[in-house]
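Issue: ligand-bound run for NAP - logging full I/O for the record.

Environment: standard queue, default settings, no custom constraints.

Inputs:
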Amino acid sequence: MTTNQQRGTADIGVTGLAVMGANLARNFARNGYTVALHNRSRARTDQLVAEHGHEGTFVATESLEELVASLAVPRRVLIMVKAGQPVDDVIDQLIPLLEAGDIVIDAGNSHYEDTRRREAALAQQGLHFVGVGVSGGEEGALNGPAIMPGGPEKSYEALGPMLEKISAHHDGEPCCAWVGTDGAGHYVKMVHNGIEYADMQVIGEAYDLLRRVGGIEPAEQAEIFTAWNQTDLASYLIEITAEVLAQKDEATGGPLVDVIVDEAGQKGTGRWTAISGLDVGAPVAAIAESVFARSLSSQPHVREVARRTLAAGIESVEAPQPADREEFVEDVRQALFASKLVAYAQGMDMLAAAAQEYGWSLDLGTIASLWRDGCIIRADLLDVIMKAFGGRDTDRHPEPGTRAEGQPVNLLFAPEFSQAIAEALPAWRRVVATAVTAGVPVPVFSSALAYYDGLRADRLPAALVQGQRDYFGAHTYRRTDRDGSFHTLWSADRSEVEA
Ligand SMILES: NC(=O)c1ccc[n+]([C@@H]2O[C@H](COP(=O)([O-])OP(=O)(O)OC[C@H]3O[C@@H](n4cnc5c(N)ncnc54)[C@H](OP(=O)(O)O)[C@@H]3O)[C@@H](O)[C@H]2O)c1
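Outputs:
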């Protein structure tokens, strides 16, 4: 790194001006910051200035050298290029241009392990590298996203106020707070996306049941979802579901949802969440099932063969009678709520496990507070979740791997949620049983219920699994009645020895 003595006056530089970078740059400018602009190919820079230059003060630059030279010290350079190698490429080009104390921000969807690696490398050069999770899509980036910054806590002094200003706000509080060191910001964003996958899938399962068992067409379902948006399900995703279901296709005159190919895409953050759940030993089955559901949907050729080959045995159930129909709709609503709650509980549990694994001090109450607005999973429920974890306290930094005092070990143990789930339980069981009978796949409804039943079971068949492991691999087992590890001499006289 050579010292660049040039000092400019711009508050922040943004490199990478595709939709997300351009919208974040405009958001900074609209909030009164002077924003230096750079893009690998100049056309995007010119387009932004031509179309939106009047929204604030922009400094268009031609090269990264020019971008860096235009910035006030400590320099804040926000990278918003395609995730992966391009981020490393840009960092490599920036390093020689910066000086100690400058801040490099990656606000794209980078993998948290990449962020950990980059943070460590830049720290050696005296630079602050901050991985920032940003949620809210294009619109959020422009008008106020949820922002989850990680990186060195010190960097937050110079960067935090700016990020907080452009973030969404909820009850006057910014949906932005420093969440933890190195890759913590990107990790929290990743888990947000994992929860988002599960949230979308449970809504999909509810829709499928209402349609295939309840016989309720999309237009009427739109009204049901609109009504549900006035209940404890109130959320952005329920709101947009109603809009999608109400949408008519211009070409056919039928519901738009009927002409959309039923293969769900994914860009990777849900898959990363499931993989990391496995890595840190957190049972995020609802999240993983939602990723698998998208994968299954995206195998059209296998599905085509399966429809012909495995056609036998698909039962049809009779649609509920009108009197029962209302009850069925309410049952599905409750099953949706309970399943959704489990997905959130699993995501939060995973954050705590990752905190222990990576030495992060994550405060679950504050993290929940960041998701109350601006992001895709924003929902009234997040306010309740935040309160269950002791509310928002940006100064509360529990020891890595521990919960702050008074925070429940599992979200479902918070009294308001254990009560809510207990009330929803009969409906949840009825819905899963009906779905199984009807042959309607509900992987997240049923997996969430299995998680709930597994958590609170007196005895799990894990005892038998341990016996099997001891049999074929002498892996030993512990006993319920005394301390120590034991092994049965399976291939000898089957007596038990202490291991
Ligand atoms: N789209 C969303 O809703 C959304 C939401 C949250 C987060 N994100 C994340 O935000 C980031 C940006 O997303 P995006 O959709 O705005 O853009 P994108 O399509 O992911 O990337 C395009 C941008 O990257 C630049 N780029 C690509 N390779 C480069 C390289 N080797 N060196 C320098 N620049 C390079 C492109 O420059 P050129 O113009 O020169 O090609 C362009 O500015 C991604 O990490 C994405 O995952 C996106």
